[in-house]
Amino acid sequence: MKLIDRYVVSSFLKNYLLSFLVLVGMYIVLDLIFNIDEFAEVKQKATGIEALFSFMYYIGDFYFYQMFLYFLHLSGMIAVIAASFTLIRMIRFNELSALLSAGVPLLRIALPLILAALFLNGLLWVDQELIIPNMIPKLVRTHDYGTEGDVHAFPIAAMRADDGAKLFAARYHPNTEKPPKMDFISVIEQDENFRPITHIRADSAIWDDQSKNWVLENGWIDRNLSPQSGQSVKSERIPVYQGKITPEEIMLYRSGNFVELLSTQRINELLQRPLSYGRGNLLRVKHTRGVTQMTINMIMLLLAISAVLTREPQQLKTSATRSIILTGALMTAAFASQELAGSPAPFAHFPGQWPALMAWLPIFIFGPLSVLLLDKVKT
Question: Max Cα separation, the chain?
Fold first, then answer.
């Protein structure tokens, strides 16, 4: 690596760290301002300075885990801002003029930025596939998760599992600090003709993450409910429910946004099941993450570099405006493509390929455009 390469990369990394702190910090401050009333609902047992430190710890504990999710959304823009500021600073202080006089092309100067951004894109994969899936209980917390009452519980009505069983629960408590719990559950297992054959009932069910079962309180199972069985109904105690309904499936049943926290491996496992809730969202997230998101981030970077990279310092304002317009257009197209990827396919011929096609549509449009604009840079 040449001296100029080390200089450009070191400047880019400093600006990358600064951009990360500024963007994520702004995200946290804005979220805190709009949700300060929910934080205020948390009851503090201490008073005075101790209560203040306890409240600050509560906020810090909440946003520490949310930062990994914020980075997932802002990773592309962080690299764009860092690269743009690196090049603008070099142009403003006439450093590019000296390099041009030495016969170094502008694109050669931008090459270390592109390679460094490509390497930093690996952080996105680590965050998405390794870190976030292992802290889901912390990420699904709401701002007022410390309140005494469980205001986020909801009923479950006729949720169907892969084996045909239907789950009913008076209240489901998606606890984050303790195992999920269901109150007054009722599970009806059916045959292939949708006729009930067994009925499981209990006062409550608590999820055991080690055995992957629901531990029942006062659990009973009624067998031989079908008239075709030719036997009388038999009731007996049952300690656990070993069905295929998990807290993960319940959260997918409740909200499609939960799938964004899962790893790609887990998404593929859910898609292989005969019945999986939020299948459209599973396909959308599968095809819009990973290589797709990294490619869009790199195209956004190339668009910004092609706009900012100029040998005329007096054109910096125009170049910066062009960069904002190009990257904004790509971000808008990427957002629209994600929404279309989660919608039903308008054509019945390729329903499985529709999410992938929509996810890659911005790449097909802006990828060639970024290469064309880079080729037109006057070096």
Answer: 96
Answer yes or no: are the C-beta atoms of 78 and 19 closer than 8 Å: yes
Q: Which residue has the tokens 């496992």?
A: 269
- Alpha-carbon torsion 12, 17, 18, 23, what sign? positive
- pLDDT tens digits along 130-181: 999 888 878 877 777 665 555 567 888 878 776 678 888 888 887 666 788 8
DSSP β-ladder status, 220-223 and 181-190 = unpaired
Long-range contacts of 34-37 (CB under 8 A, 24+ apart): 35/143
> Using only C-alpha atoms, what is the Rg of the chain?
27
Q: Can you tell me the distance from the alpha carbon of 5 to that of 3, in angstroms, rounded to the nearest whole number?
A: 5
Nearest to 266 by CA among 129, 165, 70: 129
pTM of the full structure: 0.80
Kindly list the distances between the CA atom of residue 45 and the CA atoms of 35, 54, 55, 175, in Å, as whole numbers in the listed order. 21, 9, 11, 21
Residue pair 12/112 in contact (Cβ under 8 Å)? The answer is yes
CA 226/CA 190 separation, integer angstroms: 9
